[in-house]
Automatic annotation (TrEMBL):
It is found in: Golgi apparatus membrane. Residues 48-296 form the Sulfotransferase domain. The keyword tRNA processing does not apply. The active site is at 57 (for sulfotransferase activity). This is [heparan sulfate]-glucosamine N-sulfotransferase. 3'-phosphoadenylyl sulfate binds at residues 155, 260, 276-280. One of its GO terms (cellular component) is Golgi membrane. Disulfide bonds join 261-271.
Amino acid sequence: LQTLPPAQLAHKYFELFPDQKDPLWQNPCDDKRHRDIWPKEKTCDRLPRFLVIGPQKTGTTALYLFLVMHPSILSNSPSPKTFEEVQFFNRNNYHRGIDWYMDFFPVPSNATTDLLFEKSASYFHSEEAPKRAASLVPKAKLITILIDPSDRAYSWYQHQRSHEDPAALRFSFYEVISAGPRAPPELRALQKRCLVPGWYASHIERWLLYFPPLQLLIIDGQQLRTDPATVMDDVQKFLGVSRHYNYSEALTFDSHKGLWCQLLEEGKTKCLGKSKGRKYPPMGPDSRAFLSSYYRDHNVELAKLLHRLGQPLPAWLRQELQKAR
Ligand code: A3P
């Protein structure tokens, strides 16, 4: 019996099975063979029980703030590199492996009742994230928030401007959304990043290839903004948390900020920073009309999908469908 030295053998192996070059991590405790070689001092409890998958600019940080107020809900520690989000399943961080990922999470004091979670808003539109997440945390619940994709695109553009993205500073919102195939590459790239996350139905369908519908909660972002306590009750029911937390007492409307915030002692409030709930001029009517038409088919597909899932249609979607008639 002959074999090659390890490095050459690996080379040969991946020549024969090129599709296995890309790893797909599984929970080491789910397979006896893996469990047997998994160090005793390690635990498999440092993995999220649910994921807030985005998309960006729909209120994901507000939801994050509200979730961590709950005594049984624990988040990961922030990542210094990626604006506090771990972004494991969507990016190259995935290749750092599960030890790297688990290190972001605390060891839960009670693995049954404590719910660990992670919010990375760009998981939503990622091609890879659903498959990878389903492989490592197949039982995880998923939460997504939807607002009118046109408003989402506009908020995202404003966000890029305030982060001084050169293309966003150079081109108007209308130029970004309406750029044609001959537009400069940086404008086309910005356009794609701005518009593609709003193809809600396609992205949700991709998650549903890997997760059963009962593991997915779709939140109406408008309701999260105006009536977060009711949304948080639904979230608690969906997550099956052991202790009910009363958000109507814990949240307060901050009239200065114009948004709901955490109520602290002595009537003080903790709101999100300046980067959330930004002040910017309303979207121009040309952009609004362009996007309404751009997202029409996607919104029709979303309505069909929500109908199939037995979920109510958010108000913005009903309005958009009326326009489409
Ligand atoms: P704008 O800053 O464009 O108004 P995300 O955290 O996913 O990036 O979303 C940011 C958006 O969350 C904000 O967009 C804001 O409209 C919305 N939002 C909803 N409820 C909020 C709250 N209670 N505090 C701050 N922002 C909230």
